[in-house]
Amino acid sequence: MERILVVDDEIHTVRLLKDFLTSKEYEVYTAATGLEAIDKVKEVRPHIVLLDIIMPGMGGIETLSEIKSISPKIVVIMITAVIDEELAKRAMQLGADEYITKPINLCSVETTVMVKMIQLLG
Amino acid sequence: MIESEKRFQFLVENSNDIIYTINLKGYFTYANVAAERITGWPQSEITGKNYLSLVRPDFHEKISAFYEKQYDDQIRNTYFEYPIIIRDGTTKWIGQNVQLLLVYGRITGFQAIARDITDLKKQEDSLRESEKKYRFLAEKMTDIVWIQDMNLRTVYVSPSIKTILGFTPEERMAQDVREQLTPESMSAALDLMARELALEQQGQADPERTLTIELEYYHKDGSTRWIENIISGIRDDQGALTGLHGVSRDISTRKQMDNMRKENEAFLNNYFENAPDGIYMSDMQGNFVYGNRRSEEIIGYSRDEMIGKNYLELNVLSVNSVNKAVRLLQANMEGKSTGPDELELVNKDGRHVPVEISTSVFERGGQKIALGFVRDITDRKRAERDLQNARDQLLQSEKLASVGRLSTGVAHEILNPVNIISMELQMLLMTEKLSPKVKEELQICMDQVSRIVTIAENLKQFSRVSEKKIITADINDVVANVLSLYATQLKIDGIKAEAQYEPDLPLTAMDREKIEQVIMNLITNAADAMKGKEKKVLTIRTEREKVSRKNGQLKIMIADTGVGIKTENMPKIFDPFFTTKEQGKGTGLGLSISYGIVHDHDGKIWAENNKEEGVSFYFTLPVKKNTGKITAETKG
Questions:
Q1: Does A6 touch chain B if contact means CB atoms closer than 8 Å?
Q2: What pLDDT, on the 0 to 100 scale, is given for residue B145?
Q3: What pLDDT sits at residue A71?
Q4: Stronger pLDDT, B365 or A34, i.e. the higher one
């Protein structure tokens, strides 16, 4: 089963994304901080990481480069507030593969994840 | 001898003069009948009195000394005048000849013949008195009395002429009248003479009449004197005029005062006429009695139109100022000065003129007159308004900046919970077997979440972190582009759009997307304001304005025929979150964002209600070369 790691300091966001993606038959792991996320990446080797940009402690951008240094193949989709699109665009330049905006449209999450999985698994 | 002695006795007794003798101690030893008649004392009582008892007390010392001197110096004969007090207490003057009484060469007393000189003395005194008066008059009289013959030759002139004109009467009488008067006065005198002679010939003139004429005479020293002449005619037995006599008075001082007053008047008049302020006078009912040139300029009425009219009748005050003006006039009635007070006049063309009025009161001919100074303060008011505008603009910028700082933080904080609500709703909506009613209500929740997101996105505009993309563009092109986006929507809403482009406008540097956003905001507002109105016309106009800026500026107008903006709301329209749209229809941020954008471009944005209906929004953009940035300041 395709593994997805959801990283966000907001527990409800994490829970809802997990519930939704689980309902779409993905194997979903979660992390609340950047450090936790890196441990999880090493541990479960997810296909896709949904990564919030703004987090206390290790931020999304920093976490992104850590993940990419572990494995550039892992697809990282940034989650950013709708008013912070500039941040997401900068993350794209730094190696992120895609971004989605908050408030999260679950339909577009489904589509984006699906498209990326297809690209990844060829 | 006896015979002759008797005759001598008779003569002494009957003499009109007092004859008396006194001894060396001063006691009368003899007095004749005349002494009784003159002093009122019986002859018998006089003998034995001391002579001093008859002499008026203030002469006691004098007369004692006199007798002593005659005795000491053995003067045979003296004359002396002195007053005595007679029996009834009145004074009489006595003049007496005194001789020494010698018996065998020894002085034994005095023998005197005294005469009552009271009447003589009185005459002398009155003569001296009148002489004194006469001298006083002659010295003090400054009027000149004169007589002239019909050839105007002076035949008599009083000596006072010397004091006034420097000539002696003799010199005067030798002069021709032409040497006496200045040429102007000469012709005035001849004119008068000719007129009067004509009257004489018609036989209608009053022979007793006097004429008064002021003439300028030469003084001996070459200077001139103004003299008032009161002239009457001298006539013969048949009543024919044979000469003139007159009294002349120097009125140079009066004339000088007159001239000074006239000069003062001329000066004041000149000052009033050329004063930079309007000056008016009115009576206590507010009827104008005077207005200067400047007052004509301020109210637009000529003096002829203004004088005699009441200020209420002329309708020169704006509605708000009438009561104020009435109060000022009331204060004037109580004799008080007022001002400066600000009032608003309405001039003849209907233009409102802000003025500052100071008034005071003075009396003229027993009537109270209000004197008012009116200063046109249009320029000052405009400057004040400009300053206020500048302050408002600054405040507006400040407001926007603080909203920007605040809102970015708030937006982030709001978006997280909104995200969770949104996702929860989406999850719920995915649940199967939901009743359509629940589904519908969940969808309403989703819509409301979208609204929150829209607000957050708008708030984000204030933080200005978005990159500016400065390009050089043609404003006509920008406007046309936006209009084309709205064309369908406007058609659906029944709005007629009219675009008036000034051709060949210069290109200017701008953040095109942002300027488009401003135009879109203004079009959206215009469309909203016209909802429900019968006439729906949207007018967009572009033009170039030559202003002090080197390259001029572009001015864009977007006008509607909608409901307009209430006066009390006008100052608030650019405030963040201010909206008059019904709830849910607007965030109240559109205009404040537009304000921020236009100001970032160094332009201005404002609104004016149209005369008929609706409102016109204007914004300006200075024409600039593309330097990659809009303003020198860094904002954000």
A1: no
A2: 86
A3: 93
A4: A34
The Cα–Cα gap between A116 and A90 comes to 20
Per DSSP, what are the bridge partners of residue A3?
A: A27
A82 → closest Cβ in B415, B424, B426: B415
Q: Compare CB distances from B411 to A13, A16, A83 and report the shortest one's residue.
A: A83
- Judged against a pLDDT cut of 70, whether residue A72 lies above it is answered with yes
Q: What is the pLDDT of residue A96?
A: 94
Q: Which residue, among B423, B455, B458, B467, would best test binding to A if mutated, counting the most A CBs under 10 Å from its CB? A: B423
How distant is the alpha carbon of residue B398 from its chain centre? 48
Closest chain B residue to A109 measured between Cα atoms?
B423
CA distances from B317 to B298, B320, B321, B351, B390 (A): 12, 8, 6, 11, 30
Question: The tokens of B238 are what?
Answer: 């048949």
Residue B24 near residue B102, CB atoms below 8 Å: no
CA angle B154, B158, B162 (to 5 degrees): 95
CB-nearest to A83 from B426, B427, B456 is B456
Structure tokens at B29: 């030893």
DSSP state of B220: T
| DSSP code, position B238 | T
Give the span between the Cα atoms of B358 and B280, in whole angstroms: 11
Dihedral over Cα of B388, B390, B391, B396: its sign? positive
| Beta strands at B553-559 and B18-23: parallel, antiparallel or unpaired | unpaired
- Please name the residue that has the structure tokens 């909802």: B531
B205 with B234: CB under 8 angstroms?
A: no
- pLDDT for B635: 37
pLDDT-flagged residues of chain B (< 50): 465-466, 632-636
